[in-house]
Amino acid sequence: MTTSISASGSPAATPNPSGSAEGGHLTRVAAPEGVSGGAGYSHVVWGTGRFVAISGQCSFDEAGELVGEGDPAAQARQVFENLRRCLAAAGATFDDVVKLTYFVTDVAHLPAVRAARAEVIAADRVPASSAVQVAALVRPELLVEIDAFAIVPEPTRA
């Protein structure tokens, strides 16, 4: 079961949205007691399984070419596609993500990042998140970089 917080601020139990066959390996708490709920992220996520760390991803395609120069929405979509591919390499999906860290060159890019995230992560499965405005990323044309932590369920033994 996942613990979530209802609009009234009281705990509400809902089925674990992780999708794992064993009833779920992750628990998400939108707002622990005494902590104001955030918009679009969980304050606490924990789970059991294999830990996966994904390096910060930028908006480069398979050929190493920049996608979306000057366009934070296009860059964010490419970043999430790169994250999806990295997660798949570890046998994970966005359902397994427990933490995202957004690095943006301007906080005005965050709505575009959130919209791209909403395309791949359901509102009831949002991970813990941090957003940081930075003076610059590794290349001046980059607007967004995102890293991820995930926990993948251990395979069941027969």
Write up this protein.
This protein is an alpha+beta fold and 158 residues long. Helix content is 18%, strand content 30%. The protein has 2 helices and 8 strands, in the order βββββαβαββ. It has a 4-stranded mixed beta sheet with strand order 5-8-6-7. A two-stranded antiparallel ribbon has the order 1-2. It has a two-stranded antiparallel ribbon with strand order 3-4. It is globular, with a radius of gyration of 16 Å. The chain starts with a strand and ends in a 6-residue tail after the last strand.
Short descriptors:
about 160 residues; alpha+beta; two-stranded antiparallel sheet; about 30% strand; globular; disordered N terminus
Brief synopsis:
The chain is an alpha+beta fold and 158 residues long. The chain is 18% helix and 30% strand.
Give the radius of gyration: 16 Å
Mean pLDDT: 87
How do the helices and strands follow one another from N- to C-terminus?
A: EEEEEHEHEE
Multimer state: single chain
- End-to-end distance: 24 Å
**What is the number of E strands?**
8
Give the helix/strand class. Answer: alpha+beta
Tell me, what's the shape? globular
List unreliable stretches of 5+ residues.
1-23
Q: Which percent range describes the beta-strand content?
A: 25-35%
Q: In percent, how helical is the residue content?
A: 10-25%
Q: State the major sheet.
A: 4 strands, mixed
- The largest sheet has its strands arranged as 5-8-6-7
Helices, by number, come to 2
